[in-house]
Every structure is written in C-alpha cells, then in structure tokens.
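Sharing a chain and its predicted structure for anyone who wants a worked example. Both blocks are below, sequence first, tokens second.
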Amino acid sequence: MRIVTTIMVLGGVLVSIPFLWMISSAFKPESEVLQLVPTLIPENPTLENFIKLFTELNFLVYLRNTLIIVFFSFIGLLFNAMAGYGFAKFEFKGREKIFYVVLATMMIPGQVTMIPVYLLLNEMGLTNTMTGIILPGLAVAFSIFLFRQFMTTIPTDLIEAARLDGAGEFYIFFRLIIPIAKPIFAVQGILTFIAAWNSFLWPLIIANDESLYTLSVGLSLLQGQYANNFALQMAGAAFMVIPIMIIFSFFQKYIVEGFTMSGIK
C-alpha cells in the first residue's frame, strides 16, 4: 500500500509541475522568466502581466464574450433538462425513435457538422454575430441523455400526485423535478461551464470581428503577437485555467455522484 501511495504522490507531483510553473511564471517579470537559472518561486513577484492583459490587450472584451456564452449555455442547460424530462416522463408518439436519433447525433464528430451549421447560419445572416456563436450550443445530446437517464429514476407516482393536487407542468418541473435533480444539475452545470469557458474552435470559425472573440481565441492570438513574452502568455493561460480549477476542486464530488446516479458506470 505504501508503494502504491508513493507512486501516486510522485505521479501527482510530476503532473503538477507544469501547472505550478505556469502560475509561478505568471507573477514573474519578463526578465526573470528568461534568466538562465530558473526559479519556481518568483524573486520579484508582480501583477504587471495581468494588468497588461486588460489595459493593453482586449482581454476584458474576451472575458465579456466568454461570460455571455457561459450565461446562455446555462439557459441551454435548462432546455436540455426539459427535453430529458420529456423523454423520461411523457408518453408521445415516436418518443423512443426521436430519442434514438438524439443519441445517434452523439456519434457524429462535431467537426463533421461545422460546415453544414455554418452554411445554415450564413443563410440566416447570423455569421459574425454573438447569436451565431451561442445558438448551436444550446442543445447538447449528451446533456439530454444524462438528464433523461436520471429522471427515469424519479417515481412517476410523485408526479401524478402533484397533478392530482392541481399543479401545472411547469410548476411540477421547477418546484418538484429540479430540487430532486440537484445532483445531475450540479454535474451538468460544471461540464457546461467548462465547455463554454473553453470555447475556441466555433467562435474562431463563425466570428470575423475580434470584438466577438472569446478568452481561448484571445489566448491563441496572444501566443502569436507576443511569442517571446512568456510571462504574459503564462498570465493569460493562468487566467484561463484558475477559474476551472477552483470550480472543479469544489464540485468534483458532484461529477462522480451525478454520473453514478444517471446510470453511467
């Protein structure tokens, strides 16, 4: 057991070195990052790199766009939950066939559908707009599947009892189903935030105006424009990664719980 623990600790340390180096370099002056004898702890810690991201570059615009995408992704998460609830608890013609079609879309790589979706949005005049960036990400097949799997475990008798008491369908969903489904909402919320926060390829394709770029796209531009300024690049990367690390560290237990309760082993 001690040998296994030692190996795991050493593996964790090795995996953490690049992350720790990134955080350390983000607080170093450019000259200290380039010195021949590297230092893990900054000798002259500074916030200059982070200040430069928002004063001399457009990271404030990129942050605003990313937060907009995150916000609407959570609205899409609510729609996905409604779809999963419908597939789980409502009887309608073709329910299983439609659900299988939704599952089938999970087998198609996103790169395959990008060109057709782009052409559709172009015909609608939504290219180079925030709407065009947000719209395709509102419905996610995997999210619908996960919600459906969880909501099949909710007793139907409980829903029928609420209907007999005169509760409407929206009241049942918001006041009964959502509180019961907190674990799956937690795990899907985390995954949705991570996907929206890291959105890169689709905003890069659909947007021609830099004012619509996200943080991930801005970070790639930063690597091109300031290829020799490693301290500034590390600051940008740290600003991207730290929020995800914080959220994941606090809510990682919900990911395991949500997957387990949804029937995914």
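Comments welcome. Residues 10 and 16 are 10 Å apart (CA to CA).
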